[in-house]
Amino acid sequence: MRHRKHNHQLGVKSAHRVSLVANLSCSLIEHGRIKTTLAKARALRPAIEKIITLAKKAHITDDAARKVHYRRLAIARLRNKKAVSKLFDELVDQFASRNGGYTRIYKLALPRLGDAADMALIEFVEELPKKKSSKKKSAKKKATTAVSKENPSDTPTSEEKPEAVETPSSEEVQPKASDSKEIQEEPKSSTKSTEESTEPSSTTGQQSQNSEDSSENKD
Asked: Which of 1-10, 42-51, 127-136 has the lowest mean pLDDT?
């Protein structure tokens, strides 16, 4: 009996359908996400998930013969050794902790131009990155508090305030007006005294010259 065998016929013969699903599976393994019609995406999902199950079985077993056997089964279905090696060697790690549901389908709003076929995206379900636990931060905080309790003298307390440095006030820095006047008057007085001291010396020199000239005239 062929009951419930009419799923995902895609309007083509069986040989064409098998090749189509194999090519879509290889493209999905290579790129991680492909855009196709909604009917083809729904036909691809069970086929690719069965091949991922074969990869998980090969990843779990320790028997080398079983590993080769599962790999050969996948090659027989996909007909592409590069895609099988990528799935069995690289991608299988992200599905190790999942029990089914390895792909997801997104329906697109815009249909295909020409025949208005419903379009969809199909992609692998990736594991969410694990959040870093805050245990390390709490351990560091505990360590710092323990060190501060053991050595209280090293850590400055709020009661101990740094000594204030005395800074000169504006009154001390700026000189007074009276002081500046005295400083300006001192150079003037010194110049006057030097002029007075030079004047007598010049007059005495002139008198001596006059006396010498008079004595020469007498002779």
From this structure: 127-136
pTM of the model: 0.58
Q: Taken in order 98, 41, 128, 74, is the CA torsion positive or negative?
A: positive
H/E element, 177? helix 177-218
Q: Report the half-sphere exposure of 49 (CA within 13 A, side-chain side).
A: 17
pLDDT digits (tens, 9 = 90+) for 63-111: 999 999 999 999 999 999 999 999 999 999 999 999 999 999 999 999 9
Q: Please name the amino acid found at residue 210.
A: N
> Three-class SS of residue 136?
helix
Taking the CA of residue 158 as centre, how many other CA atoms within 13 Å lie in the half-sphere pointing to its CB?
0
Q: Do 10 and 40 touch, CB atoms closer than 8 A?
A: yes
What is the side-by-side order of every strand in the sheet holding 119-124?
Answer: 33-37, 119-124, 103-107
- 10 Å CB burial of residue 176 (0-12, 13-18, 19+) is exposed
What are 49's two structure tokens? 């998930």
The secondary structure of residue 12, as a DSSP letter, is S
Contact 65, 52 (CB under 8 A): no
Mean pLDDT of 126-141: 62
| Cα 76 to chain centroid, rounded | 45
